[in-house]
Amino acid sequence: MPAAFLLGLPSTETVPEFAWLTQSKTIPKLHTNSIVFIGLRDVDPGEKKILKENGITAFGMHEVDKYGIGEVVERALDAVNPHRDRPIHLTFDVDALDPSVAPSTGTPVRGGLTFREGHYICEAIAETGLLAALDLVEVNPSLNDEFDAQQTVSVGCSLVRSALGETLL
User: Structure pTM?
Assistant: First the structure.
């Protein structure tokens, strides 16, 4: 939902908490050709409509399976930063990962990204040298037992380190 507000989508104009966004002369703050989603698998009809009507680039798990995560990341970067000359803000939503990898998240849906696919995304972004901002969201240790919480936090920390350039070699 925050992305919808930053995009200035019409359905967000009536939410009082975000009135300050609509009062600004520089709406939208974010343009639809500047965002891309990778690893979608549980998209409701309203979300699908927003993606299509606004020309937002999105890659579901079908595309990840069909083309491989390397090709999907290249296509994603081509869509939002074809000349590789703009800073990148990476938001990594851990519920994009399969719940077997990150179980303590708000929306666990089977069939998500693997541990390696998630890390590949972060590593590829680090390799561009363009990462300017990073946030990791939807880690919720209070939803599961201590083991699942620790697993999710550990994976989240590992993803952040990868995005910041940590490599095996």
Answer: 0.90
- Residue with the larger pLDDT of the pair 47 and 115: 115
Token pair recorded at residue 82: 């074809």
- The total of other beta-carbon atoms located within 10 Å of residue 154's CB is 11
Q: What is the DSSP string of 70-116?
A: HHHHHHHHHHH-TTS-S-EEEEEEGGGB-TTT--SBSS--SS-B-HH
The residue written with tokens 């936090």 in the block is 153
Q: What is the pLDDT of residue 116?
A: 98
Provide the token pair at 134: 């990073």
Q: Between residues 6 and 87, which one has the greater pLDDT?
A: 87
pLDDT of 114 above 70:
yes
Residue 27 — very low, low, confident or very high, per pLDDT cuts 50/70/90?
A: low
Asked whether the predicted pLDDT for residue 80 surpasses 90, the reply is yes
d(CA 134, CA 122): 10
Token duo for residue 83: 């000349």
CB within 8 A of 114, min separation 6: which ones?
97, 98, 101
Q: Report CA-CA distances (Å) from 4 to 24, 25, 28, 30, 71.
A: 15, 17, 10, 9, 27
What phi and psi, each to the nearest 5 degrees, are found at residue 159?
A: -65, -45
CB atoms within 10 A of CB 2: 11
